[in-house]
Amino acid sequence: MALKMQRTAARSAQARYTRRTTMKRLPTSLAALLYTGSAVFGAQLAEAPERPAGQAVSADATSYVQWLEERSMLHQAQVLARSYSGNGAQWQHPYGTPQPREAVSRASVWFTAYPASTIAASPGTSVLAMLADERLWSAFQAIGIQGIHTGPMKRSGGVRDLSYTPSIDGNFDRISFEIDPAFGTEAQYKALVASARTHGAIVIGDIVPGHTGKGPDFRLAERGYADYPGLYHMVRIEPADWGLLPAIPAGRDAVNLSAATIDALQAKGYIVGQLHSGIFYEPGVKDTDWSATDVVRGADGVQRRWVYLHYFKQGQPTLNWLDPSFAAERLVIGDAVHELGVLGDGMLRLDANGLLGIERDPTGRVWWAGHPLSLTANQLIADMVRKLGGFTFEELALPLDNMKEMSQGGPDLSYDFVTRPAYDDALLTGDAELLRLVFQLMSKHGIDPGRLIHALQNHDELTMGLFHFAVHADELFPYRGRQLTGKELRELVHREMYERLIGERAPYNLKFGDGVASTTATVIAATLGIRDITTLKPADVEKIKRLHLLLAFYNAMQPGVFALSGWDLVGALTVPAASVRERLADGDTRWINRGAYDLLGSNPKAMRSAAGLPRAVALYGSLPQQLKKPDSFASQLARLLKVRANLHLYAARLADVPSVQAKGLLVLVHELPEKSGLEITAINFGDRAVDESVLIRGATPDSKAIDVLDPQAPTLAVGADGSLRLHLNPFEGKALRIKG
Q1: Is the pTM of this model over 0.85?
Q2: Which of 318, 343, 523, 563 could form a disulfide linkage to 455, CB 3.0–4.6 angstroms apart?
């Protein structure tokens, strides 16, 4: 749907003021351009007043098409583009190559929000008002948080007649540039941007380049109107072949196609064929792949049935990035321009950005994951965002060679799906060999940890895809004294992790795809052998907190971005499956790790978020409570992040991953910026103490190593051979500095 049309003069004046205040970092010419674009955008859309949701459709099909078009994202993008085209402000920023170090320097510690799980500060207030709350930003600043990734905030779901239908995938099925009213208003989003900027931080938004929901754009595509069919991977089926298509179930607007039907349509030359894998599924029931629409009367009066592709759920039709209309490019770029120029974001996430091309490969299989068209599309988006002064990051698990390709001209930063399963494996097994192997492979493939976002929990599952080993299934890797194929190694790690993380040993976690639906706290509970999380004792909570801080230490004491979620900050547990049973009906078990949380602790009576998610048990409490206690999770995290900032570790470079003897030991050697010495990150993931001499390449013999987290600890001497004797207790991390 379009942005809200009925705006008072006072609200318009406030919007103009907020727009000016969010442009401080941009050149004057670009700030003026973006402000003008925002004004033109609002004025154009104001010509089409909103109709009440649920109002009956007019018999005038032409009026309904007009109603849809005025609210479509493609139309909104066209309106925005008029203020940007032909203006010299486009040439104020370099854009042709990624700028990871610049992006990290803008904000190196992120809070990753999840709007649907956020409990508002008080009854009746919005999620966005809560995220802009001064109390929250004071707490964030005390901890050391410099950026907030909001998660998808725009209206999502679909349109039926003149009514909106709810999101089916946590607002990743976007249908408008309008802020979802369930989260707040555009003015409140801009207030969040202003609050962040006051505290030296930025707001990070989202675009979804792979698909939309079934909103106005899709409804216009079904009607064969203008360029809209070119938006999607959708094909019109000739009436003579409608007999191949199944009937539409009552109350539905589409039907998923069986493998046999897909094969029949492929044989007739309509579509490329089956995907041969599914992302969302209920055991025994195919959900992803291709679906067929009902008979739809077009804007020209012609009746049509379409078949359309969806990598994810049926309500998420896939965009077609190689159609002569270039409609998908126009829509997605318009969305990015809106995030930067109207809302004021400083960085954008590209969701599922490796799934932007599809064709049959020479073997006859459908090639869709990691298609080269994704590289082209990513560079186009990333270049446009950089051209307007922003940055992008991708959140996609890829093999290391594909990651390297993506980094050549695409997003500035990548989510660390590389070491994340490996560090969880190290914690679960007490053996860091897989993690050390992953670092060796990163070095081999030229992956710089300084362009990665090292994170604790996010809104998704704990991914254990280990995709590099899946793609390199026949390649041999050294592991546990043997040479294992990638397939064998991946299967071994999966087997060990599933044995520990789900089932009888940890019934509070559930399997999802190639991963586990869990919170960081419940991964740790499983590590500690805790089967029942409903009867945790204070000593159990202290053990969980200690290991949670160890994982925070691992992620934070590296170059690049450190990110953590609201679930991490409050120590959230998974919610019982029964409390989200309806949301689990399609097999999406991730809802158990998305319980509601109250960061400020100011709404204790709220048992659910506004989106209806049940409140999770929070082991650590609210941020104001924690920051009053020096031994709390948040207070200890703040001390860690202060040391990280003082060292400028976010800007360091990984110099070496030394060989070690102890199974649970990982040592990383970083070159600090401006030739200010070395930083040694040493972690013992095992439950036994480590006492070992480790060779530190680049260390000056007889120099001193200072414990930067415990200045009172005795200094350590570097040996004549460059070795450093490390003593670490079980589950302990140390950060040592050797000055240059």
Answers
A1: yes
A2: 563
Q: Decide: 80 and 34 in contact? Cβ < 8 Å.
A: no
Matching CATH number, 1-214+328-355+371-415+426-464+544-647, of 3.90.1150.10, 3.20.20.80, 3.40.50.720, 3.50.50.60: 3.20.20.80
Q: How far, in Å, CA of 357 to CA of 715, rounded?
A: 55
Task: Note the CATH architecture for domain 652-738.
Answer: Sandwich (2.60)
Amino acid code (one letter) for 732? E
Alpha carbon separation from 507 to 500, 518, 667 (Å, rounded)? 10, 11, 34
The amino acid at 445: H
CA gap 523, 689 in Å, rounded: 22
DSSP E strands, 526-645: 561-565
Distance in angstroms (rounded) separating the CA atoms of residues 208 and 405: 21
- State the Cα–Cα distance between residues 487 and 277, nearest whole angstrom: 17
Contact between 414 and 452 (Cβ < 8 Å): yes
Token pair, residue 339, equals 């995030």
Domain boundaries, the chain: 1-214+328-355+371-415+426-464+544-647, 234-310, 652-738
Asked if the domains 1-214+328-355+371-415+426-464+544-647 and 652-738 are classified in one and the same CATH topology, the answer is: no
pLDDT of residue 280: 56
Average pLDDT value for the chain: 90
How do residues 632-681 score in pLDDT, each as one tens digit?
999 999 999 999 999 999 999 999 999 999 999 999 999 999 999 999 99
- C-alpha 322/C-alpha 357 separation (Å) is 8
